[in-house]
Amino acid sequence: MSEITQNLPQDTSRGPKRRQSDLSVLAGRSVRTAILVIATLWVLVPLFFMVIASFKSVADFFINPFGLPDEWLWSNYTRAWDEANLRLTLPNTIIVTFCAVLGSSLLSAMVAYGLSRKEKKYALPLYTLFVSGLLVPVHAIILPLFIVLKAIGLFGTLLALIVPYIAMGLPLGVLVLTPLAASLPKELMQAARMDGASEWQVFRRIVLPLLKPGLLSVAILNGVWMWNEFFIPLILAFKPEVQTMPVGIVSFIGSYSTEWGLVFASVLVSTLPVVVAYLLMTRQFQSGLTAGAVKG
Amino acid sequence: MSARPVSSFSKTYGHLWFVLPGFAFFLAVMIFPLLFATGLSMTNWSGLGNDVSFIGLANYVEILTHWPFYRAAMHNAFIFLAILVFQHTVGLYLAVLLNEKPRFMQFYRTVLFLPVIMSLVATGFVWTLMLSPNIGLINPMLEKIGLGFLAQQWLSNPTWALIMIIMVTAWNSMGWAIIIYLAGLQNVPEELRQAAEMDGANSRQVFWRVVFPQLSPAFTALTVLTFIGTFRTFDVVYVLTGPLGAPNFATDVLGTLIYRTAFGGSSFSSADIRFAFGVAMALLTMVIMAVICWGLIRILRKREIES
């Protein structure tokens, strides 16, 4: 009986050719599920072992490669805090990412507003100039940037990362926000101007709040790469006092290459904040990152 | 407060005040260093000392016969092609599976995209734990399930090392393909699919003739993204096989080559550092990449319109 009711809609919609037995449908579904499970395991198994590894002693790595640690060493984390310099690099990463995200979001919103009137002659060339910044690889500019920062005395401070990050966040910000700013209702701004609002007030009170959804995307897009960036601080931050976590961890492994427990504890500390943010705002991360990537 | 008289100048250019601060940053960090770099690339500066003289395009001419450059570019190209195929097959297939709204779809989607938000350095360490000759887990696992003969020195065998770099890059970037294709699949109008089914097309025909052509914007975006990502690759190689692209330069890519030439790798003495030559390589790479990128976009967009 159930066979009839299940097959009926299929027969009418897919034509007589597609009469499949329940068995083959079931087999097909299991294969599909199996493929999804394998892909998921491929992602999760290494992550799972990394979490375990961050609690292991050095001896555990060799005696007992994939078992649970004999003794869960929370001390790996406290030791990583001091010895792998997380006490310096974690605050650095937070400060640098926070300032640079704030700076580049605000500046790109301003640029977007300034360029949003397409009838102005300068709008399109300037927009193209900003957006073409996406094509410039860090490799090409990092070396002169290093010299410039040294010359103006920012080298050796956190500003040596914040200032470049703000500028490098602009192309994506301008790309995402300018079309949004151009689509805002002109009457709203005109009305505010009539009431005597200055251009800055129009921007601050009307444009900025309306750009909020776009600004969130831009903040996520820029925040993720700034938090994770490795190459720029590798060149521009030479000592732990000004390093961010990815470089800090790599230079730690260079000096203590057998303290694997500490390395994985540090990697986990550096990854966890982004993962938590991602799990709390999965949809915004996925749509924000994809929108930026596709347009870029 | 009465409205201020507005001069015609500020009416035309008043909005530029909003552009100015951003432009100042952009000028200082992007444009000026780029011009500076172009000038530097025409000198023989080593990066240390005051010994600088103008040598015109000699650095660029030298790159043309600098075979490590070609070797590194070949490795980038190889990684690009492998990841490209992976994204458009495995990535696309996983997106199709997820688009059928299986149970736990949200869970799969969240997990499969997770590596994208992880740093490449973290990714590199995660896979060091799996592949390393000392602490790696893959070899003991293979031995345990009786496949010990498959165990390898994954990162010190020249062939395997590059394959492993590709595998780790695929692990990190698969989420892009899934999310981009999934967004594309969700935009395919249901009527189109149903109409084709009515006409007696089987599911394979429906996918390749009806659905897949609708995905060409996703195909374009993903191809360009993969191109840029793989030709800029650096972090994964640096963590897994080091700045020298070990073993014996088998995983040397443009990123590590430029880094080493301009700043020196661990085993290079300072005499081998050639800052200006490194800058020239970086600039040449940028120009070639921009041209290829532009070409790719033009060809793929044209294809989108035709289909």
UniProtKB/TrEMBL annotation, chain A:
Compartment list: Cell membrane
Pfam families the record matches: BPD_transp_1 (PF00528)
GO cellular-component term (any): plasma membrane
Membrane-spanning segments: 34-55, 94-115, 127-152, 158-185, 206-227, 260-280
Single GO biological process annotation from the record: transmembrane transport
Bilayer disposition of the protein: Multi-pass membrane protein
Residue ranges of every copy of the ABC transmembrane type-1 domain listed in the record: 90-281
Annotated region (Disordered), positions in chain: 1-20
Polar residues biased stretches: 1-13
Swiss-Prot/TrEMBL keywords: Cell membrane, Membrane, Transmembrane, Transmembrane helix, Transport
InterPro entries: MetI-like, MetI-like_sf
PANTHER family membership: ABC TRANSPORTER PERMEASE PROTEIN MG189-RELATED (PTHR43744:SF12), ABC TRANSPORTER PERMEASE PROTEIN MG189-RELATED-RELATED (PTHR43744)
Similarity comment text for this entry: Belongs to the binding-protein-dependent transport system permease family.
Name the UniProt record assigns to this protein: Raffinose/stachyose/melibiose transport system permease protein
Source organism (scientific name): Cognatishimia maritima
UniProtKB/TrEMBL annotation, chain B:
Lineage: Bacteria, Pseudomonadati, Pseudomonadota, Alphaproteobacteria, Rhodobacterales
Primary location class: membrane
Source organism, top-level taxon: Bacteria
Similarity comment: Belongs to the binding-protein-dependent transport system permease family.
GO annotation, biological process: transmembrane transport
Keyword Protein biosynthesis attributed: no
Pfam families (alphabetical): BPD_transp_1
Keyword Transferase recorded: no
Membrane spanning residue stretches: 12-36, 77-98, 110-130, 160-185, 206-228, 275-297
Name the record gives this protein: Multiple sugar transport system permease protein
Its membrane topology: Multi-pass membrane protein
SUPFAM superfamilies with a match to the protein in the record: MetI-like
